[in-house]
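re: ur question from the group chat, yeah i did fold both. here u go
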Amino acid sequence: MAKFNDIAKSGAKPGGREPETEARAETPAFGYPHNRAMAAALQKCLEKTFAGRPPANVRTIVMLSGGLDSIALLGTVLKETNHAVHAHHIEIVNFENRCKVEKRSVANALKYIRKHYRPFDYSESRSEFNVGKGGGTDLQLSLFTAFRLCTALGGNIDLVMTGHITPPFWELSEGAAVFHAGFIHKRRKPEWVWPLKFLASAHVQKKLDIYESIPEELAETAWSCRKPVVKKSKFLPCGQCFACKSMIEIKRIRAGRTDAGAGGRRPG
């Protein structure tokens, strides 16, 4: 399980390269498929979770929001592991009005992943809460739903993965409490992990590593804006929220790279 001590401290087809053991090399390459920071972070997470002794036939749930982080996480897990994977999307209907565009993003991502990655299972659910600010955090809802999904799948789940990077301690603690409460009377409890916390860099660099961990065509299916603007029946990024500003900075960095440096090393 995700322990409070840990919180406080805080495809392509299978058979490809082995992930590095460290989440950051001294001179990391940039651009897909050279950027291996995400693969290394996943490997480090799994090594810590299983103490170097992973069980056979690992069954993993990946919670899929439609954002870049969760799409990249699903792609990386499919490419870098042999886990039996079940992805799940929650259509969250609330005041932010993201549900339709996120569902479209998930559909586009699934279409690409099913064509280019190995097989996996998929399901979705819907949460509609149009009172006030929605009644809680997305993480709280995600982990509550993950517990219910584990039960629906017969309880034989080893890992639940979410695509969070560095949520505040109170949010992680609340999510952990909700998740663990669901398994009080269960004989088997899966581990909840968020591998992206093992990316060893500043936030913008983390987001860049996440973007470059998957093919650009797949990364571009993601929707990151928290407060989409609707104009002429089209959803547009607001350009002002934290997620939008991160994506703007990522694209600025990528655009600033010279053609001569593409596929090579990050400039010092």
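okk and heres the other one u asked abt
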Amino acid sequence: MRPIKILLVFLLLFSIDACKRNEKLTLLTHDEVIVKITNKELYFDKKIVYRDSNYNILKKSNFKTVDTSYLGKDFFVDDQEMVKEIRFRPLNFRDRILKIHRRAKKYYDPSKDFSIIDIDSTKIDSILADVYKTDQEVRNTGSTEEIRSTDKKNRIFVVSILHKYGFPKQENLKGNSIWAIFLTIQHASPELRAYYYGDLLCSAIHGDLPLQAIALLEDRILRDYGYDQVYGTQRSSIGDLPIEDSTKVNERRKERGLDPLF
């Protein structure tokens, strides 16, 4: 009987190992990674596997000779949404945006840049309605100095709301409240755009903002940090600005709900 028990244990262990090797993993998209990071739902397996772009397993010793900061990462999860595998590959614009955003979340604190004011939760809608109204009006009729003054005032209101109450959903607000937040951040500093990028993307995924707005934000963030835009949404006073890999610009624009550029 003992040899039979040993054989059964061996077969059981073999079948478990085979299941692990044949486990189906799903690649997370850039948007899914950002949403999980923002919601603090990106979980990593303790025995995570690292691979290079040729699917070769990387050992810890490999990381001593390879500078992974210049590589992009693909995250693969199991059916429990646990990251089981990370595959390194050449860097792309989405990786740059992710790195910029994560750096801002780690090192930048909006509350230290602004005089946070106390805001009554019952007045958030009316405040954001006024933010939206003044943002649009000053851009139609105001001088450069008036635009700067209005933007500064609106930033204090918006950052104070987000600091105290977190990032809201449109279902809890009225009118153009989420648009007011987006426009205020879009017209703010590079650090503030990078910091709130994840929250704004989550709003778009939730349906509170159109994805076209995220394309505007992503192009602006890339330009902020010295990279070419990728959707062609940004122009200067002298005309069009460079687009990275312009032959694929319409493909990328389609992903964000934008019409073809040409």
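fwiw on the second one: The first strand starts at residue 26 and ends at 27. The radius of gyration is 23 Å. idk if thats what u expected
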